[in-house]
Amino acid sequence: MATGHEAAAPSASEYIVHHLTHLTSTGHKQEKIIDFSLANIDTFIFSLAMGLAAVLIMALVARRVTSGVPGRLQAAIEIVIDMVESQSKAIVHGDRSFIAPLALTVFMWVFFMNAMDLLPLDLLPSLWQTASGNEHAYLRVVPTADLNGTLGMSMGVLLLMFWYNIKIKGIGGFVHELFAAPFGDKVFLYPFNLLLNIIEFAAKSISLGMRLFGNMYAGELIFMLIALLGATATWWGFGLHLIVGSVWAIFHILIITLQAFIFMMLTLVYIGQAHEGH
Prior knowledge:
This protein has 8 helices and no strands. By secondary structure, it is an all-alpha fold. The chain has one domain (32-274). α3 (72-91) packs across α4 (99-115), α4 packs antiparallel against α8 and α7 (190-229) runs antiparallel to α8 (235-274). The longest helix has 40 residues, at 190-229. The N and C termini lie far apart (77 Å).
């Protein structure tokens, strides 16, 4: 018999808002969409954890590699390595001793972070609430669904673009290209060339981060809507939750792989462009 003091179940909007709120260093809801101060602790922790997981798996496969019939994991890693090497060779015309391993690291890291979206939506947040003793504790487990995380990675790619432009062309050549391309090496065109190059670098880095964030954020929202079907306390709702959730999870495997591939390819393209002159 109800006593009137039971905690009310959250509404659909409250459920979604709770799952879209980060665990922050301040203990409060984040006020900014973009904040590079590492305020979103969950993004930092899961990004680091997925990076370490990718490194450990690659190291394990490298240690156990065999020239005979490979196991499934070794075969999968070899396919990824061959794909990355062929793409880097086709795009980057120059020394790839650092670029190819970088591209492999980017693909594996982004894939592992994206794959966190395949875990049951309430699994880790519920465990965190139990461990912390706070039933209202926040936790988001998909780092690439946080704009701060994806823009942080894209800023890293931007720095690499600058580095390779300076390394290949020299600082004088790079500065000259900023002012002389693409309209021509004329003094009256220098301001227009510089402005266009600044816009180009900014657009590349921002769109790189926004693209990954947008796709993963949308996928996360769809999982939340599917989870709400199971909360209807009806057989049809629970059935739809299982069927639709399974279908979307299978389809989402393609999405998380494709987004990792696109991020890796654009990283290669942008670094490859630094090897070319206007």
